[in-house]
Amino acid sequence: MQITAPATSTNAPTTRSLPLSVRFPALPWIAALLTMVFWASSFVVIRDAAAHFNPGAMALLRCLAAAAVLSLWMLFRRPRFPSSIRAWLIVALWGVAWFAAYVVVLNAAEHSIDAGTASMIVNIAPLIIAVFAGLVLREGLPWRLLLGILISLGGIGLITAASFTGVITIGGLVLSLVAAVLYAACVLLQKHFLSREDSVTVTWLGILAGTVACLVFTPSLIAEVAAAPIGITLQVVYLGVVPTAIAFNLWGFAIRVLPAGLLSSSSLLVPAIVVLLSWIILAEVPPPLAAAGGVLCLVGAACAIGPQIVGSLRASAKRSD
User: Fold this and answer.
1) Transmembrane ranges (predicted)?
2) Do the Cβ atoms of 187 and 126 come closer than 8 Å?
3) What's the pLDDT tens digit per position in 85-118?
4) Most buried one in 132, 142, 158, 206, CB count within 10 A?
5) Within its chain, how far is the Cα of 289 from the centroid?
6) pLDDT digit string, tens, across residues 253-283
7) Separation of alpha carbons 94 and 89, rounded Å
């Protein structure tokens, strides 16, 4: 008697055919955490470059560097362009708002307000995103998420108090609030309308749109590059390559699969990472108040996103077994 193996469906997905985020559930969180480290490094770099480049010129050079890197990448990767005219328009709007308006407004705010205060105001964006995504996008409002955000905001307040220099204007406060709204709007726009598109192509096109919008600052950039030390210019190029081209692609990968409110709360780690990087790279020993604020940021982030990260790591471990 011959025994035959049961037929298997040729339509059943194989492990290799599944998306990376399904095969390795921890990958989106790893991408998000790397993004936070890269974004935090930009604050350390901007501290030196701001004395030599005005907000618009710095934004343009940053966009040009990012656009050059991603355009070179596209020579070896087939772009998957947006599938509708509406998607193209949203990508253009998102790119101008994120890579041009947000960067220029934030840079301008830090010229008329203490950097720590600007950072504190801008970091209300995760709270805006969490509430809007929970109520409108129906992601829910877990108590751990809201509690973690509030704890981290308290930590950011301590860091701000420790670094406050007394430089503050009404204009700076308004610009910081505008930057926070732009931050929140861009994240929600990307999550709701663009997360089904190819994230690498969307990031590339968005940066190109931001570059075009920043071209009005070309005369200023030419003059400031000629006057600035080469090392400072290379620092701004770094802003375009790492915190923009690389980090935003990692962010785009993460936001495809993670809830917007939950993912954006990971940016509450940035102030703590900035304190740590300033200590390591610039040898700036943080005041006790700033160190305490950094610890609070970490505690808040752990409360907000810790259970999801642990769950993803466990899922990845089970899958590897």
Assistant:
1) 26-46, 58-76, 88-109, 115-137, 144-164, 170-189, 201-222, 228-250, 262-283, 289-310
2) no
3) 999 999 999 999 999 999 999 888 877 766 666 6
4) 206
5) 26
6) 999 888 888 888 888 888 888 888 878 877 7
7) 8
The helix or strand, by DSSP H or E, that contains position 168, with its residue range, turns out to be: none
CA 273 – CA 280 distance, rounded (Å) = 10
Q: Are the CB atoms for 235 and 59 separated by under 8 Å?
A: no
How is residue 223 written in tokens?
A: 């003059």
Identify the three-state secondary structure at position 262.
helix
Asked if 167 contacts 114 with a C-beta cutoff of 8 angstroms, the reply is yes
Least confident span in 26-30, 77-81, 158-162: 158-162
Tokens of residue 297, six digits: 């940021």
Q: How many whole angstroms separate alpha carbon 6 and alpha carbon 91?
A: 48
The SS3 of residue 89 is helix
> Phi first, then psi: what are they for 204, rounded to 5°?
-60, -50
In 195-246, alpha helices (H): 199-214, 218-227, 230-239
Q: What is the mean pLDDT of residues 58-63?
A: 96
- Taking each continuous run of H as one helix and of E as one strand, the counts in the chain are 16, 0
Two tokens at 115?
A: 């950097």
